[in-house]
Structure formats: structure tokens, C-alpha cells
Amino acid sequence: MTSIDASSTPSDGRSALRANCADCFALCCTAFGFQRSTDFPIDKPAGTPCHNLADDFSCTIHESLRPRGFRGCTVFDCFGAGQLVSQELFGGTSWRERPDTSAEMFATFSVVRQLQEMRWYLVGAAERTTASDLMAHISRLRTGIQRTLDGGTSEVLACDVDSLRAEVRHLLIDVSEEARGGYLADTAPDDDLRSSADLAGRDLRARRLCGADLRGAVLIGADLRGADLAGVDLLGADLRGARLDGADLSDALFLTQMQLNAARGDEVALLPTTLDRPGHWTGPLPAFPTDGELSPWASSTHPRYRR
Prior knowledge:
The chain has 7 helices and no strands. The chain is an all-alpha fold.
């Protein structure tokens, strides 16, 4: 990778990495497609508007997405890519106003969404490391992504996202090892608490988890009620339907809003200040889905691994 001046400061604070649907042309409702599943009740081809999309780009069933079967919509997070593409890269002109730009806009959104997710992780990594070499590497990557975004759609679409994600992932692993070094987790080499472990449906309430490496672990429907997840690496972990009632996630590593939205919890669970408590955590616990695509962070060898 080309050397980047680490002295420049990218504009990727947490506020810039949060979705603002009011400034977006409903790109997540148009650019991406989905298939009938536990997350969606219908099929929708990529590049076509959802039939629930209003003329002003709002969702006509926003308040009842989960009851109507659109669980996937409530889980998704663009990390601020929607407003960045809509307002900055395309100057506030929507795909409805300029249909000829729709294909380029949707393709750009797909890439930018991935870049924004990487920025989120890198900001988190910068908050957790004290090592000067890791901090310098983080700064170079953040600045490089910023330059790609500043270069416009041509630079964005030319970005080698897979290679960049691989580099970011290796860096996050290094930061994780440093951050978890201060914990005495019950994670012997032959233990089942390890990265990419299949812990679906497991009762982990009595396990010592602090500092565990659960990167890419499958925790679908796992019982983590009351668990202390301080220093636990959750990068790419599949938390769909996981029970987080009363759990302490305030100091977990690389946790995202999407993971929380996919899980089940309550008003007692402790969350990082940078994330919001999902609205469905205060109501009846929904059934959890068991299909769908896992995070590309879950495995270095299978970037689109499906369970």
C-alpha cells in the first residue's frame, strides 16, 4: 500500500459514521436486493425501490417493520454512507431526479458503506491502542480511506475493498491482542471460546468471558444473560437472536449497532456510549432468525461465508 502522511487528520469522528436517513435518498431501500427469508417477507431485486418506499424517500411502514416481517431493515446500518453518497458525492441530486445516475449511485453506495464500516472499526481501534506503531498504521488507513472518498465516485469505485478490508482486519486483530492482554480469560488453546467458534444456542452464562477472542464466532441464539463481556473481541461475531439481557457490553471490542439490533436484550444491559439501545429490547422478545449472510469480518478465508 502506498505510504500515506499520517499527520493529516481524517474527518471520521463517530458522528460522521452514524446514519442520517433524512439526508439520504433511501439508498439502502433501493441499491440492495433481498430474498424472502426470516428477515424479509418478499423478494426484491437489487437496484429497485422497495414497494414500501414513499415519494419523499421515507418508509411507509417504518413503525411496524418487525411485525410485518422486515426484520432485516431494522438490523441494517450504513454507518453514514447514505447521506455521504446522497449529499456529498452526488451533490444532493437524487436518483429520481436523475435516473441516469442511479446505477452509479447505487454501486458507489455499496462501496462507501463498506468503507464507512472500516472507518468505524478504525476509530474504535484508535480508542483502544496505546502502541505507537499501531496508532500510526490506524492513522494511515483512516487517511487513505478519507482520500478515496474525497476523490469522488471514480476513486471510490476503483477501490480494492477486499484488500483494504483484509489489511484493516489484520490491524484490528493486533489491536485486539493488545487490548485483551490485560484480561485473564478462560480461553485455553483447546477451549471452545475462540475465534470463529460455533456457539449457536449455547448457554454461556456461567462462563468467564472477559478478554475472550470471539471474533467471527457464531453466537446465534446463545444465552449471554448477565454476562460480563469486558474486553471480548466481537468483530464479525454473529449475535442474531443472542440473549443479552442484563449483560455488560460497555467495554466490548468492535461491537456495532447492527450486532445489537440483531440480538435480544433489555433495559438493564449496559452498552457502549457510542451505540443506541435497540427499540425492540424494551418489548416482547422476538423469535430469532437462523439464516442470512454473516458479516464479511467473520472469516478471512470466506469473506462472504454463509451459515
